[in-house]
Amino acid sequence: MKNDFVKFDNVDKSYDGKILVVKGLQLDIAEGEFVTMLGPSGSGKTTCLMMLAGFETPTHGEIYLDGNPISNIPPHKRGIGMVFQNYALFPHMTVYENLAFPLRVRKIPKDEADKKIDKALSMVSLQGFEARMPMQLSGGQQQRVAVARSLVFDPQVVLMDEPLGALDKNLRESMQYEIKHIHESIGVTVVYVTHDQTEALTMSSRIAVFNDGKVQQLSSPDELYERPVNSFVAEFIGENNTFAGTVSDISGNSCKVKLTNGTEIFANPISIKAKGEKTTVSLRPERALINPKDKMDNNHKGKIEEIIYHGDHTRVRINLLGNDQFILKIPNSTSNLDIKLGNDINVGWNTKDSRALDPK
Ligand code: ADP
Ligand code: MG
Questions:
Q1: What is the pLDDT of residue 312?
Q2: Which GO terms describe its molecular function (predicted)?
Q3: Are residues 199 and 335 in the same domain?
């Protein structure tokens, strides 16, 4: 397996010659990997896919595919399949003709093409639909045909740009698993784009979090959630409690942060280096405990402001150390915690779980 099967090497992109919408992109994607570009709208994800596909050129830097620079190779010779949210099927062609199109462009003989079409349709469970027109299919079926069309010519890499964005929630979730299973069974390299963090966490081997044209963090889903490297990632992925303050002491894996209300808390110094620096401390809701039995590094009094029942867990909003939006999650199998509106309670957490990041 090649670790840098797809390589963005210091890629910049500007559309107007002034503003860089992709800045110094450095990204290695291994053969057979499923890498997702995740980020808010306008962060440069589609631009990156377009450059990889060959519909846009980098302003600076180079993209390599299997070790070869691809800047001078036209899109249809790159061996890249594509699925886009708005890149609809050809409406005037049957399912069969839609799938035959990329094969005809590549001059594949008809009997071989028919075998490939059959195989691609079976991957998305749509055998027997060859003669249908796109408008005779549901949204989910159309998107499955689009997936089949992107795979039918055995591409080296498949690019998917928000392919499930137009589908309703249930269909989107089942398609996520379907695409993931297809990826696992054929082992093609996938570069996927979404702004939906749950989708990214569910499907990907690694996720590149984009903001403002830059990769903020490139990690496995669990690493990204458990160990965000900056405040943007901590906020963008999952739920996040924050405390603003100033570093009052630091040594090794521990620092003290003085909050605006004067209280000092212990935190794990991630993106701060010295006393006096401003920081935002990030703490996942499930890492804080209510009235903990055992001693924890941090233990502070708070007041319950709101209780919301969520089926498998209860969300409790607490006013804690000047933050009245502090959220805690309690599994509904837990009992006797004295959770009542207005109650004063103790909230505890350990140093390693409160991450001192760059100030927001
Ligand atoms: P994303 O896919 O993350 O939403 P895009 O790559 O589409 O982001 O866009 C990144 C930035 O580049 C945005 O500011 C967008 O307005 C701009 N942009 C995208 N495509 C073009 C284009 N063809 N011409 C000019 N500007 C563009
Ligand atoms: Mg986009």
A1: 86
A2: ATP binding
A3: no
Q: State whether 109 and 58 are in the same domain.
A: yes
Nearest alpha-carbon partner for 315 in 347, 285, 348: 285
What pLDDT is recorded for position 170? 87
Asked if 266 and 124 sit in the same domain, the reply is no
Q: How close is the Cα of 55 to the center of ligand 1, in Å?
A: 13
- Residue ranges lining ligand 1, Cβ < 6 Å: 15, 21, 39, 41-47
Taking CA atoms only, the protein residue closest to ligand 1 atom 21 is 15
Phi-psi region of 125 (alpha: psi -120 to 50; beta: other; left: phi over 0): left
Which stretches of the chain score pLDDT less than 50?
none
Residue 171 pLDDT: 86
Q: For 209, phi and psi rounded to 5 degrees?
A: -85, 120
Instruction: Establish how many alpha carbons lie within 13 A of residue 24's alpha carbon, considering only the half-sphere containing its beta carbon.
Output: 3
Nearest CA to ligand 1 atom 23: 15
Residues forming a β-bridge with 245: 259, 279
Q: Are strands 254-259 and 241-251 parallel, antiparallel or unpaired?
A: antiparallel
Domain assignment present for residue 350? The answer is yes
Task: Give the number of whichever ligand sits closest to the CA of residue 210.
Answer: 1
CA of 224 to the centre of ligand 1 (A): 25
**Gap between the Cα atoms of 96 and 104, Å rounded:** 12
Q: Which of helix, strand or coil describes residue 360? A: coil
Instruction: For residue 43, give the DSSP letter.
Output: S
Where are the extended beta strands (E) located within the chain?
6-14, 20-29, 34-38, 60-65, 68-69, 80-84, 157-161, 189-194, 206-211, 214-219, 241-251, 254-259, 264-269, 278-283, 289-290, 298-309, 313-320, 323-331, 344-349, 355-357
